[in-house]
Amino acid sequence: MSLEELYRYLRWRMDPEDERAVERFRRIVKFFESLPDLPGGGRVLDICAGTGIAGAAVAKATGAKLLTVLDARREDLEKVSAWVDIAEIGPDVRKVIGDARNVAELVGKHDIAVLWGLTMPHFDPFDAVKLFAGVASILSDNGVFLIEETDRVYGILYRIGYKDMLIEAKGGDYTLISLHEGYNIMRGMFRRTYYKLPGFDKVAEQEFRLWDIASQLAIGSVFFREWRLIGREEHGVVGVSDVLYFRGPRKDVAKAVLGDK
């Protein structure tokens, strides 16, 4: 069963018809406007874009001339034009349906890349290396890669504790739960199965990794000359999590890694 099937029930606030999502969009724009050194008037790539809410926010904050949205879910990508209208901007928009791990093969050169919405759990450590290498390979020499993330080792494993059963979401007529099914020690991935109540209808099986911040910064430090964490307390924008900032891709390293794949 597909990720697209799961996201029909497990929804982020990214639908442009949802006023709460529009407020989230405004806050994301505020965050990007607070960064003084983002390339202006350039090319923005939104990876695992969903509806393109974050990509449109970057494009508005930087006056981008091109916005590329990459996601495996066609249905969500169709909504990016609504975000462009809400932002009152006019970049060229390119929709790319595909796997983020293959970003180097799917898009051309960009100046800013974003991976927004706490998306890293979809990638195991080997996927993450390929993702970072791919992004580094397509960014301009002074390009920037921004990832919105949180530390799940501290936030989940330490503060809460891993749960065999979780209520993941509630809709008007359903509750979505997930059950622990196993752990892949070679890939560092937990496996969970999702069910819809009432009826206990199986929705999807998915694997995910409980990433910490330090590991992601360490991988990024291999592929970028500059790297740092912009914590919630530092940026102060409600509704935006911790942000990992990478600048200046090491293209020789990226090329060597991608050449081995």
- Please tally the β strands and state the result: 11
What number is the mean pLDDT?
Answer: 95
User: CATH H level of the largest domain: which superfamily?
Assistant: Vaccinia Virus protein VP39
CATH topology of the largest domain: Rossmann fold
| Category from helices, strands and their pairing | alpha/beta
Order of strands across the widest beta sheet?
A: 3-2-1-4-5-11-10
Radius of gyration: 18 Å
Beta-strand percentage range:
25-35%
**Secondary-structure element order, N to C:** HHEHEHHEHEHEHEEEEHEHEH
Give the overall shape: globular
Can you tell me the CATH class of the largest domain? Answer: Alpha Beta
Low-confidence stretches: none
CATH architecture of the largest domain: 3-Layer(aba) Sandwich
Number of helices: 11
Main beta sheet strand tally, sense and closure: 7 strands, mixed
Q: Work out the helicity level.
A: 25-40%
> How many domains, in number, for the residues?
2
The end-to-end distance, rounded to whole angstroms, is 27 Å
Q: What does this molecule look like?
A:
With 261 residues, the chain is of the alpha/beta class. The chain has helices at residues 3-7, 19-33, 53-62, 74-77, 80-87, 103-106, 125-138, 152-158, 213-223, 232-235, 251-259; strands at 43-47, 66-71, 92-97, 110-115, 139-149, 165-170, 175-184, 189-197, 201-208, 224-230, 242-249. The chain has 2 domains: 3-151 and 211-259, 3-Layer(aba) Sandwich (Rossmann fold), CATH 3.40.50; 163-208, no CATH class. The strands form 2 sheets. A 7-stranded mixed sheet has the order 3-2-1-4-5-11-10, with helices on both faces. It has a 4-stranded antiparallel sheet with strand order 6-7-8-9. Helix 3 packs parallel to helix 5 (80-87). The longest helix is centred in the N-terminal third of the chain and has 15 residues, at 19-33. The mean pLDDT is 95. Residues 44-143 form the Methyltransferase domain. This is SAM-dependent methyltransferase.
